[in-house]
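Tokens help. Our protein:
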Amino acid sequence: MTTTAPALRRIHEIDAVRGFALGGILVANISFFADPGLSVAISSMDFNRDPVSLTVQTLVLTKFYVIFSFMFGYSFTMQMRSWGEKVKPRMLRRCLGLFLLGVTQGILFWIGDILTLYAALGLILLALRNVRPRTAVKIGCWIIGVMSAIWLILAGLTMLDPSAGVTTPPDPAVMAAAQAQVTGSPLSFLQFQLQTYPMLAAFVWFGQGPMAMALFLFGMAAGKSRLLEDRERWARLAPRVLWIGYGVGLPAAVFFTWSSHDEGALQLVGLALNNILSLPLAAAYVVTLLLLVRRLPAVGAALAPAGRAAASNYIGQSILQCLVFTGYGLALGGRLTPIAVIGVAAAIYTVLLLLSAWWMRHHRYGPIERVLRGFTQYSADPQPLR
């Protein structure tokens, strides 16, 4: 006998967290649009050392994809409840839809797209959907532990042979050529995308893949426990999360930024610590937001519409960044100061929040969500995707 799972109500706080994470991802990604040379020098970790860039690297870089990945796993448990026995075929189609969206965005707009990675890891999450929350957390911890151990082993090997940790400085001519190609005609930017996307996609898959999988599992464990849906439960945990997150995670983030400019073992140690301690700092960000939303509901009301249309906003911010920095539009890549770039990010985020609020007053789903939902479900199912 076929049964239909009951419709689930949207959780306002979860949508607000997604909307918040989108802002952090925008700030983390915009430097690659604003300075096209970074896309061909990513392996050197040769980021700018001005105060604005150092602040972004410390407080934003690697922190918000943690939140976004966690929320993907959490949302998967809500989809399982909504889809019931149809979870397997629907999740397979959803992952295929995400993969196609990711490839399209990677070629046309943003070479650092993560949707293809999420689609692939979503298949693994689907296979592990019946594991207990405690088991999911243990697997995630093992993944993070192994990745951190690898960085520490490499650090030890670098100490034995210092020349092994020295990277080749990026060629200024290559970086200048990348900027000229990105800010040239729309066709030259598209050629840059086609040339660079495979390389950077591999970097994203191998650089972020294991950590994203661990966060998927943590999110799934939290979702099965309905952690964010039980306000009193997470509120009881809030003081501990804030003390650990800011007390330990923030100094570790400062060390990560400081060590990233060293080409030897110190940089690798920083990466190992960041693998572990970026998690409590990201958790502290989320708890701070949730407490703020409880005190000031208007904050949640401003962020939640964007969170309801997370995929549309993720792709939308890439399109708007292209219009500002590439040959698709104003071609300002390489011409703005870091503080001006942050100003552009704030403007883009504000525009997307306003557009999301307007759109969600008239529609139940974001434009990308509607297409993805139809592809996933093949019918006008009244149950919302989360």
Remarks:
- The mean pLDDT is 88.
- The chain has 14 helices and no strands.
